[in-house]
Every structure is written in C-alpha cells, then in structure tokens.
Amino acid sequence: MLVLGIESSCDETGLALYDTEQGLLAHHLYSQVALHALYGGVVPELASRDHIQRLIPLLQQTFKEAGRSLPELMGIAYTAGPGLVGALLTGASVARSLAFALNIPAIGVHHMEGHLLAPMLETEKPQFPFICLLVSGGHSMLIRVDGIGRYQLLGDTMDDAAGEAFDKTAKLLELGYPGGPEVSKLAMQGRSDRYTFPRPMVDRPGLDLSFSGLKTYTLNTWQKALQTGDATLQTKADICRAFELAVADTLTIKCKRALDQEGLNRLVVSGGVSANREIRAKLQQLMAKRRGEVYFPRLEFCTDNGAMIAYAGAQRLLAGEEEPLTFGARPRWSLEELAPI
Ligand code: KG4
Ligand code: ZN
Fold it and tell me: What per-residue confidence (pLDDT) applies to 316?
C-alpha cells in the first residue's frame, strides 16, 4: 500500500512516500527557519502562507524521486493536530482534496503519535511494550506504549517543554532560533565544572517534568555574569553546558523511574530534543548499564518530518481506519484519546 504523508503542523513542510511492503521510498522537507529567525520564533500566519507555497512543489519532487505516480497512491496521511491551526489546515486541505480527486482514503494523524512511531522507520524496530520519552518543542511526556494507539501517559509537561526550555535559553543568551541546536553546539565548548544547575523535580515522586525553573536559573546566572563583567562567549558556553547536562540528567532520572515503575527495560526516545547529543549519550549509558534496549529515530526524523506521518497513517489505514469527508484541525489533542488498532 503506497501512502503519502504530509506534515505541516508548525514551521516545517514535510512530504514522504511510504510503501507498507517496501518501506520509505522518498521524503522531502522544507524548513521555514530562515523565515522566522528574523522574529526569534514562529509567526503562525507566515508559517501557513509558506506551507501553501511549498506543499505542491514538494509533493511533485517526492513522487519524482520515488519514481511513482499519483494513480498508484492508495492512501494519504496528514497531520491533523496538535499544532498551529492555520498551518494544520493547509496540509489537511491538500490531503483531503487530493484524496477526494483520486477516490482514496485520507486520514488525520496525531503529530505526537508520528514522533512516537518514528523509530519504526529504522531497520531495527522496537517491540511493544516500551516506555517512550517524547521530547519536542511543545511537549515533554513519558508514555507507556503497549501497541499502536495503546498509550498511557505516565508523566507530562508541567510548564515549559524540554525543547521550549532550550529555545528560551538560546533566546536569553542571544544565540538565535531554533535554540536547541544552537545551545547544544555552544555547549560543546563549555566547561562542565564551572556551574551546576538544579535537576528539577527529581527529589519529588512522580514522572511529570518541569523546565521553567531551569530557564530562570539560566537567566539569573547570565544576569550575574553581566553585572560582574564576565559576560563572555566562554561564560555563555559554560552556561549552555550546565543547562544541557541538567536537562539530560533530569530526563535520564525520569526515564529510569518510569522503566522501574512499569517493570520494562525498553526505551524509545523521540521528538526534536531526542536529536541532542548529550541526551542521547546519557540515555544510551543508562540502558547499557541496565542491559536494556534504547531506540532513537535517525537525526533527520527526530524533528518534524513527513515520513513519520506517512508511517503512522499507513498503520491506521492498514487497520481499516476511515474518516468521513468532513475535516478540521485539532490544535489541542490528547494522545490518550486515540483508538487502539
Ligand atoms: O519535534 P520538533 O521538531 O517540533 C515539535 O513538535 O515541537 O521539536 C522542535 C524542538 C525545538 O524546541 C528545538 O529547539 C528542539 O526540538 N531541538 C533540540 C535539538 N534539535 C532540535 N533541542 C536540543 N538539542 C538539539 N540538538
Ligand atoms: Zn514535532
């Protein structure tokens, strides 16, 4: 079954063709980073307008690269939420109209389910059940996954998501947007023995995650450096290192706790922040020590992309899920509302 995947929930237009027998055939991504960098963050209206311009050329490019044609398509998967409503509607409109014209089914995919299943695009796929650490720009979640659509939320974002904390830290250190990769790059030059940042909520029971305090700690540290005439690039790098280590440690402690609580030894890490070098290393160490398994998507599938949407949609279409012709977008949408298949 040949399925087209369309991702347009935020600032990336992603298109992919996935064949349920042959796997991923082609994928293309257009990032709007340069467009929004000027404003220090995503401007929703600009995002929607840009998606409209990119969707069709990217779609044509993806078909060309895969060597397939529109009549071969058997289903279309598009991101239906959560995300920016205008941006979501651009992808939904293209997906729905194309499906109507070709008389094939289209299905709205939950963006976070796409992230959660992204490691399934790799040759070595995780078996169910597993614990998933989903860390993106808008979410930090720990989920027990017993199958596709069988999700139990164990811990959630209390305030800033992990990616949001990276982005805000970058902003206050004037490192540009998006912040995660910038903070991570500078952290490589930072010293780990200069500052020790707190590990939020690790001394409290439970699996919820909170990163806004850490962001404030970063702000205070930087302001002190400004007051004492120590606001150098090296200080920024040292702060980035301390911040990154604190996030990585906190996530590692919470993953360990979730695995222990659920009696599992298989971990899946996905979402934009799972691209982080330090976080990947710390979680790999944790799982090696426990003699467990850990799975990450390849770097290009950690952040938003069309391939994960095509994969998630293909699984639901294969299971016979259908949608009526009416469609909308769901800016807010809980993973736990999804139907098991
Ligand atoms: O999954 P994603 O592309 O979009 C959402 O669904 O939110 O995640 C984007 C987030 C941003 O906050 C970005 O700063 C962060 O992922 N990110 C990173 C890295 N690469 C992207 N954070 C830390 N280290 C990275 N290398
Ligand atoms: Zn995402």
Answer: 97
Indicate whether residue 167 lines ligand 1 (CB < 6 A): yes
Q: With the CA atoms of 275, 278, 282 and 288 taken in that order, what torsion angle do they form, in degrees rounded to the nearest 10?
A: 70
Is the CB of residue 181 below 6 angstroms from any atom belonging to ligand 1?
yes
DSSP state of 157: B
Average pLDDT over residues 88-94: 97
| Nearest one of 49, 24, 19, 23 to 35, comparing CA atoms | 49
- Is residue 211 within 8 A of residue 179, CB to CB? The reply is no
**C-alpha to C-alpha distance for 172 and 163, rounded to whole angstroms:** 14
d(CA 138, ligand 1 centre) in Å: 9
pTM for the predicted model, two decimal places: 0.95
**Please, what are the domains in the chain?**
2-117+301-337 (3.30.420.40), 128-296 (3.30.420.40)
Pocket test for ligand 1, best of 9, 277, 303 (most atoms within 8 A of CB): 303
For residue 109, the SS3 value is strand
